[in-house]
Design goal:
It contains one helix and four strands, in the order αββββ. By secondary structure, it is mainly beta. It folds into two domains: about 30 residues, no CATH class; about 70 residues, no CATH class. The protein starts with 7 loop residues before the first helix and ends in a 7-residue tail after the last strand.
């Protein structure tokens, strides 16, 4: 749920759920996502995306792989990029300079 876009009823339900089980919930500040050209119905349209890097730790040092998982919100204006909420993934390419 994104608080600033939630209805009064959604906020009331969230408050009741948090009061009933505070350890069952996580909150975070709103992250302002970038947009990226995405093919929607055969045309390019801006959609919100986030990128999750792949980092491996061998017990001594962390190493980031080139690339990662880029998640995209397919609905216009949507800030939630989870596949469970209608989002999806995009290929992420890292080219040598």
């Amino acid at each position: 749920m994104i608080g600033r876009t939630a209805s009064s009823a959604e906020l009331r339900r969230a408050r009741a759920a948090i009061e009933a089980g505070p350890a069952d919930h996580v909150a975070q500040e709103l992250v302002h996502l970038s947009t990226h050209p995405t093919v929607i119905d055969g045309r390019l349209a801006p959609r919100h995306v986030d990128m999750r890097p792949f980092v491996f730790y061998d017990g001594r040092r962390a190493r980031a792989l080139p690339g990662g998982l880029t998640r995209v919100a397919f609905e216009e204006g949507q800030l939630v990029v989870n596949s469970s909420r209608g989002g999806g993934g995009k290929d992420t390419w890292v080219l040598p300079s």
